[in-house]
Every structure is written in C-alpha cells, then in structure tokens.
Amino acid sequence: MSHSEKRYKVLISDPISQCCIDILKENNIDVTYKPKLPLEEILKEIPEYEILIVRSGTKVTKEVLNVASKLILVGRAGTGVDNVDLDTATRKGVVVMKQCTWRKHNKDIPQACSSMKLSKWERSLFMGTEIHGKTLAIVGLGRVGREVAFRMQAFGMKTIGYDPIVTPEAAKSFGVELFCLEELWPLADFITLHVPLDAQTKHLINDDVFDKCRRGVRVINVARGGIVSEQALLNALQSNKCAGAALDVFAEEPPQNVALIQHPKVICTPHLGANTNEAQLEVSKQMAKQIVEFVNHKALIGVVMVQTVRPHRPHT
C-alpha cells in the first residue's frame, strides 16, 4: 500500500487483462475499468483520477492532459507512446510509463501458404534468398533490436546497426558494428526498424534512402507505421529497387494504401506485434506491478521522461 493515507484512483480506458485490475485492487488502489471509453467521456472523468492506464486506443492528447488536474501518471500497457502527448505531459510533470515485456513467438505468413490454400502448386514463383552471409542493418539497438541481432547472428548474418545512444563498445559486446545512417544504407541486404515514431524518425525510410540502398534490399518494419514512407516503399518495390517488405505496422491502421498491401512482394499482418494470449496477460500484469511500485515510492520502471518527474503525492 502507498505510504499515504489517501488511496490512488486509476482509470483504465482501454481493454486490459483482469489480472491488472486484480493486482491494483489487492494493493488498495481504486480502479475504474471503462474499456473503449470515448474521448468526450475521458475529458469528463479524468479530472477525478491520479493515474490513467491506456493501450494504443486512447489518445492522451494535450486537451486530456490539460483537464486532468490530479493526474500524476500515465501508464501505457505496451511499448509505443506515440498516442501520448509527451511534451504536454513533461510540461505538466506527469510521469509517462510504458511496459516493455516482449514475448518470443512466430507467425506463419508466407505467400506460398496462401497459394496452396487456393489449390495451387507454384514452387517456381517462390524462389527465396539465403540469409546466411547477408548483412542485416538494425536501426535501433534497444532491447528488441539486440534480441533480433542475437537471433540473426545464429543464422550466420552479419549484423550492423545504428543507435544514437549506444557506444561502439557496447554494440560490439552483442555482435553489432555501429555505423552512421548514411554509411549504413549502402551496406544492407536487409533493414529492420526498432525505433519509436517521433519527429526525427517520421519517414526515416524514404525515396532518398532507397536511392542509397543496394538493389534488392528488403525492409522489415514492426515498430511504428510512420517510420517508413509507404509511397517511397511502393515506388521502390515497383522499380525492383526493393525486393520485398514485411510490415506489421502502417501509417494509418487499418491501412489505406491498398496498392502496397496487395503488392506480391509484401508480407503484412494487422499490427500483431505482441498479440498472443501470453503477451497480453504479461503486459497487463507487469503494468500493474510497475504502478504499484510507483505509488509505493519503490521504483520508476519504464518511465519515458525521468528528468522532469515531480514528487508524486496524492491530492487530498
């Protein structure tokens, strides 16, 4: 329980596993669970709460933060925080905390499977390429980027990368050679993206980048949709500059670029990222535990902006 006599009030405005609610209640935190709460209702209710828990559905806008007079914490049950106005949260001293549990799973998605389900036998159409000996450029060397490097090294890939806050020595310790972006593009057979979407990364992959890449480069984006210019990617696919793309995220979701989705060299999934039963349960459980640690003054886990955090005291 929090050291304060005042109980914290939490509003959960997106669907989440019951275990999250149970853990919070077991720790004397009052929980209001209203999944898929529309913006107009959030604006009415949020002034009464100290903590807001969201997934990707709720947009924590400047308008929401400005009326949230008691708010001290936004908990994002997941990795991406592009649905939270971080500038306004920082200015108001509201802590933004994300939950970064990543489950290891795979999905069966090759076009050859779809072909066979149509009673076709088209072996000659699905000629692949060996990844052993190929160069994988990893943009973003956080937890997920490092996991990717570790796994692809096991397949014999050469792993190179870019991350503005990782030192060459640190990168070398997990088998990645660092380059600046301008040096990275011409070296890559495959490019995989593991960065957040912000002003610096929006359309990071664009026409100019494809011009610098090897012919036949392949692009994987499982981070955020706006990182890749979808029109630039489509242009590169149509000109054969890009030999293929695997996309789990899109600029608009559901995606509106039909030509890209239907392109035969594109494998796409509907933002499945951590979409397994185990992952959903784990992210809900860990989000609750992080909030309990926070209100009990024990730890700040997964906080996006630490330097602006104000002391958290419940309102009386």
TrEMBL record:
- What's one Pfam family the UniProt record gives for this protein? 2-Hacid_dh_C
Q: Which PROSITE patterns match?
A: D_2_HYDROXYACID_DH_1 (PS00065), D_2_HYDROXYACID_DH_2 (PS00670)
Residue span, D-isomer specific 2-hydroxyacid dehydrogenase NAD-binding domain: 105-273
Q: What's the domain of life for this entry?
A: Eukaryota
Q: Which CDD domains match?
A: PGDH_4 (cd12173)
Per UniProt, the keywords (alphabetical) are:
Acetylation, NAD, Oxidoreductase, Phosphoprotein
Q: GO molecular function of the protein, one example?
A: phosphoglycerate dehydrogenase activity
Domain D-isomer specific 2-hydroxyacid dehydrogenase catalytic stretches: 10-98
Under Gene3D superfamilies, the record lists: NAD(P)-binding Rossmann-like Domain
Q: Which family does it belong to?
A: Belongs to the D-isomer specific 2-hydroxyacid dehydrogenase family.
The annotated subunit structure for this chain is:
Homotetramer.
Protein name, please?
D-3-phosphoglycerate dehydrogenase
